[in-house]
Amino acid sequence: MKFERTADLDLMKRIITTPEVWPFVSDDFSGDPENFQVPSDPRIWNMLVIDDGALLGAFMFVPRSGICWEVHTLMLPGHGAARAAQASREMAAWIWANTPCLRIITEVPDFNPLAFKFAVKAGMLQFGRNERCVMKFGVLHDEILLGLNKPEDS
Amino acid sequence: MAVYNLSPIFQPQYVAAAAAKLVFATPSGPSVVPANVNYQIMVARVANIDTVPVSLEVWRVPSGASQDNQHVVVPTINIPVASQTFPYFDLTALWGVTLQPGDSIWAVAGVASMLVIHADGAVITV
Asked: Of A72, A152, A153, B103, which has the highest C-beta tally within 10 A?
């Protein structure tokens, strides 16, 4: 499995707005996927996940500080949970080895229990809960906050 | 470096009543994967627009191979009639498959022009 930083925002938009991805990364105020614009901030690391030549999806890393980066997981359908979990573990190792990031965090809405299990399988630990902060289909939901520290021996 | 372009792999098309290659969406409708690209199927679905279940069989045939029993990926199954609550049937055997130059997908339906198949994925220029 390999990871490539990409500047192709059109490809990132297509990944994010894929019908199997968009419902899980949007809320009632996200608007139409056609009008979605991928942030062009150069501090953001958009990473493609490639396995045996196939595009598995992407991770978007948005720095919250110089060393704490928030990850958005954007795995495309058709590859199974096991490969996605493997990608997540290997992505973290790549980030520790190749960037100044020392802590990865993520926010999982409570209407997406699969994403929560995915994050936990990737080694993330829950450190908080942002209550009633997302509205989906007119219902308020919590976001579960999870994080992962760079191992001291890596 | 490979270039990835998310794209339809099969535009919606009828499945014939005799085994035949499905037609890829790009470029200009080939029935085998062209040179210098791979087709990665992410999602493949079939809808039965008949009023009764219709059988379907699908083969994944690598370049140079034959459409025979060794290459069946969906053995003969009955596709239920599409409805508002069950609009299509997921062909999960094709999900995640990466096709290489010369590869093709064959299909046959029990009744012509009653199964509509389509697939989305990525065209990978290698």
From this structure: B103
